[in-house]
Amino acid sequence: MSADECAVYFGLRFEIPEGEIDAVEARTDPRMIAARDARLRRYWGSVADGDERYYLLVGAEIGVMGIDGKLDVELSRAGLEAIMDETTAKLKAASFEGEPKLYVQYFPDY
Q1: Are 60 and 83 in contact (CB under 8 A)?
Q2: CA of 99: how far to CAs of 58, 62, 66, in Å?
Q3: For residue range 78-88, what is the model confidence (pLDDT) as tens digits?
Q4: Does residue 49 surpass a pLDDT of 80?
Q5: CA-to-CA distance for 60 and 8, rounded, in angstroms?
Q6: Which helix (H) or strand (E) holds 84?
Q7: What residue spans define the domains of the chain?
Q8: Fewer beta carbons within 10 Å, N or C terminal of the chain?
Q9: Is the confidence at residue 96, as pLDDT, over 70?
Q10: How far apart (Å, rounded) are the C-alpha atoms in residues 24 and 34?
Q11: Interatomic CA distance for residues 109 and 95, integer angstroms
């Protein structure tokens, strides 16, 4: 059984077009493969606020909060800076483009 979750990631977020969802589910999407090879974490899911959209998060997983996951996360400034530096380097080495950011993404279970 699944439940609502809130994923906290430092890295990149991609909106997944409907035609690419099967590849993400099968973990054959090129971004999923590149992330795995670079030892980056991946999380994907859908959100609906009138329109259903799918997102793929790639980078460092700071936490996935929810009743089935963590309830809290604590990081020091130095710890967060280390995550940011390491993740930025891994994304660049894996040829991901874009500026890494902190994402706090709510994924409701409908």
Answers
A1: yes
A2: 12, 17, 27
A3: 999 999 999 99
A4: no
A5: 9
A6: helix 77-93
A7: 5-107
A8: N
A9: yes
A10: 12
A11: 33
